[in-house]
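Suppose you are handed a protein chain with no further information: no name, no annotation, nothing but its sequence. What can you learn? This example shows the usual starting point.
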Amino acid sequence: MRLDYGVTRAPARLFFGPGQRRAIGRAAADLGRKVLVCTDARLAALPVMVEILDDLRTHGLEVAVFDATEAELPLAGIHACVEAYRDFDPDVIIGLGGGSCLDLAKLVSLSLTYPGPLSQYYGEFKVPGPVRPLIAVPTTSGTGSEATPVAVLADPERTMKVGISSPALIPHTAICDPELTVTCPRGLTAISGADALAHAIEAFAAVERPADPQLAMTRVFVGKNTLSDHYALAAIRLVFDYLERAVEQGDDIEARSAIMLAATYAGLAFGSGGTAAAHAIQYPLGALTHTAHGLGVGILLPFTMEFNLKAAGANYAEIGRAIGAASETQSDQEAAAAAIDSVRTLFARIGIPDSVGEIGVAETDLDSLSELSMGAARLVENNPARLDAAAMKTILTRALQGARG
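A reasonable first move is to predict its three-dimensional structure. Written in structure tokens, the prediction is:
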């Protein structure tokens, strides 16, 4: 664990625990009088949405609801929400749902605060200042968007998804109520948990940069640091202890609580530490296969860990010992190998495939995917081992063969 440098970027308020959704009304009333809720059609039809809207109105708030959030967050959907509620002119935007709902709230707030197009803010530190206050209420346990400075969208003019990264996009308030995840389907629970684990492992093993006082002022994602390490290890332990249980027993509130906490910890970890190769490759992989983000990241993670073994072996060894897969008497090489094996075993048990071939990738796709993966510069630079297109193809070739290959 690194001890000489640390950065945390986090919400001003973070409320966690079963039933904490009942704080939404009071939290919003602290921030304004007019509230826009960004959610999706499924959540909008649930009784819990009625409960939340009643709570907001009981606190004297004027409320509007946008319930047409789409998966993978297309740019057109962001524009539709902004145009529909520009005249409503909300003081507060609440994102309620999965990562796309939370990211929509971030980008609607940005669009209502500053002139477009959104493309001028792609990248890091492009947002000119504070946006309208955001409240993030996740209903899945994976993206960690409730605690992060990034929002990701699909722009039809770009081959793959793009991100806007700025501390201004961190929600003012995060309200994490694991009771909202109890109805999350088995498969979504699994791939969301895989995404959270990837956030934590990639942040913990990210490139280690010199502790320059200007580093956090010039990079949103600074690489491995002592504060992100703390959150990352806590998240990793929770995922290994509870993810399979949450997948198999969806009504187990202890397991649901543990995995929601893990996802938030992982968000706090990568919110400063950043992610790396698995996420860089997933951007074009997801665009090619039209599969969920967490699924692709979950398949790729063990293969990127193997590629990074020489550069990050000590970090993986620390993970292996932290999860009880290796002992203090084993060498770092043995402990790191045990950590990678443990990731594979956990993912196999919850239904994550072990090859990108199982989600539609063919050998003829590898050159294109390798080149496109290099476009995610902030992720490529954050990887502990040097990456180029040839290295990406090496990872993808192994991921196509699968662990048994």
